User: Fold FAD-dependent oxidoreductase from Dyella koreensis.
Amino acid sequence: MRSTPGNNAHLAPEPDTRDAQRFPRLTDEMAERVAPYGEAEQVPAGTVLFERGQRGADFFFVLDGGIEIVDIDNDGHPRTVTTHTRHQFTGELDHFNQRMILVSGLTLVDSRLIRITRDNFRKLISGEPDIGEIIMRAFILRRVSIIQLGIGGVVLIGPGHGADTLRLQRFLVRNGYPHRLIDTDLDPKATGLLDTFDVEPHLFPVVVSPDHQMLMNPSTAELADRLGLTESLQPGYVHDVAVVGAGPAGLAAAVYAASEGLETIVIEGMAPGGQAGTSSKIENYLGFPTGISGQALAGRAQIQAQKFGARLAISRNVANLHCASQPYQLELDDGQRVTARAVVIATGARYRKLDVPNYERYEGQGIHYAATPMEGKLCAGEEVIVVGGGNSAGQAAVFLSRIAAHVHMLVRGIGLAATMSDYLIRRILQSPRITLHTETEIVGLEGGDRLQQVTWSGRRDGSSETRAVANVFVMVGAEPNTDWLHGCLALDAKGFVITGIDGEGVPTSVPFATSKPGIFAVGDVRSGSVKRVASGVGEGSVVIQAVHKFLNPEPD
Assistant:
């Protein structure tokens, strides 16, 4: 059985030196400070305090007694995950949002508890920073365990190399939702599952919840809705600022906006992190000397934004910006609308597609735009191709060289010096498992249901080579995600948002202002921006000063 890394089917006990941080016990003095934020209750044994699927569950602190945390296993039977006793507390990262919780909780014995509502929980986190730090660390570690052990998760059944299986798995992985993949091409148990669930192969992939409810090849939005990953939107509610896009720039804007008291909502079509979230490791980001994966960086930033009160609406893209009047309205692809007094556009850019016959046929079934451990498992021990000469392509090549038999790196130019950081160039040139092919491009893609063969050609001498390659990682160029603007803003010739101007095209003192007042653009989507994570974070944080000035203009 091929499973998502660490997503085990059972709660196998493993040595863990971090239990004291995952399930901390507060001191008597800390308990005294927690108490005023909630209400003390005497609760009889067997009382259900919260249930899987509930939104907005209260936070419970145990004074005396105990709370059992319960999960449902793959056979539909309850199992104990852990038990919180004196001066311990319930919850994990879903306490910072309105998503459906993954587990249930009930009192083991007659217990004395402090019940803290969601609003007061936020006050506790900000008002008692030392306690807040302990809780935050515990919540993060609990979510890691939930993912590793598949607690409260779903089973994804389908062919491991299938485009839709990969689409759903990528969504679950990038949103940190626990799951287990059963690869029907490799797992001998798959046949038995077909009989158990009475599912025909043509309906794959299938998502099965712990209560054996099934979704047959759902859309990303349908899956997010069923799992409770989406937040309900209030029609007509006017936010101070709407951030479109949850890449580094968008998340930075959300953190600074929410931390400064602005009612903030972030709208993201896939998952936090944007293009940077697909990077296996970012090594030149300030403060992380050993590097950090794009997904980990995005996950931390998401938690940080939610900690300050920002709301994150995922799995919905903005289809249209209604900019003729203020406040502005963002129309989502499902017809819902989000209203905001100010808008920060941080939709970034996407990699360009190659102009090669059969290209679309193999997208998702051999052609990838991300190189994470999930994609890496697809090409273990095989030759792979990375197309592109930027840092993302370099990081992908180095990462894949530890998994694949060999990495062929194809670039159209004469070298890498003009487009890639020196530390990556040196690693690529020194690696015996990476071959750099300059002035080279792919000219042929062949195979059956999956990509099986790739032909590339030298642009200078016309020579060609065909190899048995089933996975190609395309990371070339950048096309802005601005189709949804529909003429609202001034764009440059390549479609990037022009900033630093007013409605008349006159330069302004605000570098991130667009041609519409109250609409700003930051990060890769902005014309002339530096395509780096650090610059995107900087722009996202700095733009909030301009948002404040727009929302609260100084009197003349």
About this structure: The longest helix spans residues 129-149. The chain has four domains: 19-149, 154-227, 238-350+479-551, 360-474. The radius of gyration is 25 Å. The chain is about 25% helix and 25% strand.
